[in-house]
Each structure stands twice: as C-alpha cells, then as structure tokens.
Design brief:
350 residues, alpha/beta, Rossmann fold, 2 domains, 39% helix, elongated
C-alpha cells in the first residue's frame, strides 16, 4: 500500500538506527553501560542468545490518538515477526502506568516504551524497570530517568509552531484560553511554554491552562465555562488530543462558530471534522505512527544487538505538521482532506 506524506518521514527516520555508539558488548543476556553527554548512566540489556525478546508499548490513556501509534507497532510486528504488547491505562492514572512497569519488569520483559504521565514523580519507577529492561520514552519524556532514548515530538518546538498559527489568527491580539489533561506531563508543559514564548510581545494574553485530569466530562465543562463566562476570550487552544473534539463540540453547540476561534493539537476525527466544518482553524499534528514503529524497532534491536544499537543522540525528534482547510503548502501546512485520506489508509488493516 502506498502512503505518501505520513510514511515519508518514517523512511527518513529509519536512518537513526545507523547512528549508534561504537562501544562493544558481551554476548548473551548481559548488561552494558554507557553515559549521556550529561554523565547520566545508561544501561543496555541484551537478551540471551536464541530467545525471543519480550517488548511492551505503554500509552498514557485510551484516546483515539493511540490507534495510530498502534498501527505503527503492528507494522513493525509484521516486518520483524515479534510480538509487542500494547498496554493502555484505562483511567490514565500514574498508578496504572507504575503497575505496568512493575509487572513487565517482574515478568522478564526485555524492552518497555512508555509515554510518561508524570515525569518528575515516576523517575524511581522508571529506574527500577531500567535495572532489568531497556526503557525508552515516547510522546512524553522523563529526561531525568535512566531511560535510553526519547522518541517523539520536540514539544517546545511544537508549541512554538502552534504559537505561529495563533499570531496569524489574532493579528490584533486578544485573550487565549488553554485546555489540557494535566500540566504535570512534560509534553503539556513544553507545548504551553513554546506557545507563550512565541506570542510574547504580540498583544496576546495566554491564560493559565484549565486541567481536566483526563476526565472527559470535566474537559467539556471547562470549555463551556470559558465560553459562557469569559466573552473576552478570542481563541481556544487544546494541548492534548481529546481537547480538540471537545472544543469543536462546545463552540458549535453554543453558536459561537466564527466568534471564538480554535487552534489545537493532534488528529482525532472530531478535530479534523471541526476543521472541515470551519469550527477549528488548524491543528498541529504529531506522528504517533512513528512513535509506535520506531519504539518497537529500537527496543527489538537493543535486545538483540545490545549497546551497538544505542543511538548516539538519545532524542529522536519525529517532527510535526500543521493541518488546516487551505491548500497544501509544502513545508508549511497540509490540507485536511488530503491528510485525513492518508490517515484513514494508515489505520486500515494491512
């Protein structure tokens, strides 16, 4: 199956596996160590020869966003013949993720990829798992932990990209309300800071984010409260994937289409439909397919090749795109219909 834009980046990203350290390692189920540029130790665990590595991919919730990452995982499973267990915390709680980490480590898993809900609070749990398994982060990093690599979006730069769109949408300035699940997550904090830094000096006031703790009802009521009680707010920003559909729904039901603008993140169907309907102006999309594919690939190679598979640069940036209703402009934005068609093909059974 041919898929142009969305998979083009995946082909380019495959080159990162060539950029590895030159250190050697012992044969068989062994652990070798190296260090990052900051002196942080990184332990690589090679699976015993002749065994099939056990690998797991952990999300931070059950949002439809992760269906795309699951397609990337499935593609690598198809190519490699290995099984990657796809784990999702049903309530999006730190305790659920920590339980996954503990269980997987105790069950002898060789590799774990995780989108960290609370990076500061979960360092100890990640480090415990990293004592026996290769741990990488995706989507939301925990840079202070002993994870081996981060595969995903440079969230500060993604926030700046959204900020550039907000400036275009509010040339005269105005107040902007921000919605998110939890500001404790690295991706939320970094996107918010990138947004704020980019609009500084443009007469645009970015309000304190309204958190919903990943509760869909609270997510909706947060948006309703702003629209009903803060008429001076000109634009709504959703930092997490499910915020977009909620924002579109509330703007539509309140009759504020065209009066209150929206710029959001990610590619949930409700967000893309909101763009087609003229309710959402744009969305900055990540590349979750690559989160799934490259996390699976790197963990497999670390388990089979040891330290030889360790990237020299532990940060693997998968990039972002801006999606809107306008014609595609190479290197700047993509048309929503073209993008959605490719996305549908990507999520279809292979």
């Amino acid at each position: 199956m041919k898929i142009s834009g969305l998979l083009r980046g995946a082909v380019a990203l495959a080159a990162f596996t060539m950029a590895v350290s030159g250190s050697g390692c012992k044969e068989g189920g062994t652990t070798t160590s190296s260090s990052t540029g900051t002196g942080q130790a990184r332990k690589v665990h090679k699976a015993p020869e002749g065994t099939t590595p056990k690998i797991a991919f952990i999300t931070n919730n059950v949002s439809a966003f992760w269906n795309i990452a699951k397609a990337g995982v499935a593609q690598y499973e198809k190519e490699s013949g290995i099984k990657v267990d796809f784990k999702q915390p049903q309530n999006g709680k730190v305790e659920e993720q920590n339980r996954f980490l503990e269980d997987l480590a105790s069950q002898g898993y060789n590799g774990i990829a995780i989108s960290v809900i609370a990076p500061d609070a979960q360092v100890a749990e990640i480090n415990k798992a990293a004592n026996s398994a290769n741990v990488v982060t995706h989507d939301s990093d925990a840079a202070a932990s002993n994870r081996l690599a981060y595969i995903g979006t440079n969230n500060y730069e993604a926030g700046k990209r959204l900020g550039q769109e907000v400036i275009k949408l509010l040339p005269q300035g105005g107040k902007v309300a921000v919605f998110v699940g939890m500001m404790s997550a690295d991706n939320a904090r970094q996107r918010y800071q990138g947004l704020k830094d980019t609009v500084a000096g443009k007469n645009i006031e970015i309000l304190q984010p309204k958190e919903d703790n990943k509760d869909s009802k609270v997510c909706m009521t947060n948006v309703e409260a702003v629209i009903n009680s803060q008429p001076d707010v000109k634009l709504l920003v959703g930092l997490w994937s499910y915020n977009g559909p909620a924002i579109a729904s509330v703007i539509t039901s309140s009759g504020k289409k065209g009066q209150v603008l929206a710029a959001v993140f990610d590619e949930e169907d409700g967000t893309l439909q909101g763009i087609k309907d003229g309710v959402i102006s744009c969305t900055v999309v990540q590349k979750p397919y690559q989160f799934g594919y490259h996390s699976s690939k790197l963990l497999h190679e670390l388990a089979t090749k040891g330290e030889a598979a360790l990237p020299k640069n532990p940060i693997i940036d998968t990039g972002v795109d801006v999606i809107n209703a306008k014609a595609t402009v190479a290197g700047q934005s993509r048309n929503v219909d073209e993008f959605w068609t490719e996305l549908s093909k990507l999520k279809a059974p292979q």
